[in-house]
Amino acid sequence: MPVLLLILLAGVLAYFVWRHRSTALSRDCRWRLDRARGAWRCAACGGEIPDEARGAPRICLKNHS
């Protein structure tokens, strides 16, 4: 049983590391899809990225202005 818990803990930690490296979003990023304009717009900083049907953006434009 303790071995199973250690494996589960290792899996959760590995997921957190993978998730941290696969995105550059901050807690301030709030992407909203504006379908009329065909673009994703950030409610926090006002950044805008064209919608390419790949889902919500995975980068933060706050520091790229």
Structural topology:
Layout: H1 2-21, E1 31-34, E2 39-42, E3 48-50
Antiparallel strand pairs: 1-2, 2-3
Overview of this structure, please?
The chain is an alpha+beta fold and 65 residues long. Helices cover 31% and strands 17% of the residues. The protein contains one helix and three strands. Strand 1 (31-34) and strand 2 form a beta hairpin.
Could you provide a short overview of the structure?
The protein is of the alpha+beta class.
- By DSSP (H or I, 4+ residues per run), the number of helices equals 1
Rg, Å, rounded: 17 Å
The general outline is: elongated
* Largest sheet geometry: 3 strands, antiparallel
Find the count of extended strands (DSSP E, 2+ residues).
Answer: 3
Distance between termini? 51 Å
β-strand percent reads: 15-25%
**Estimated structural class:** alpha+beta
Mean pLDDT: 80
Q: Please mark out the parts with pLDDT under 50 across 5 or more consecutive residues, or reply none.
A: none
Q: Main sheet: which strands, in order across?
A: 1-2-3
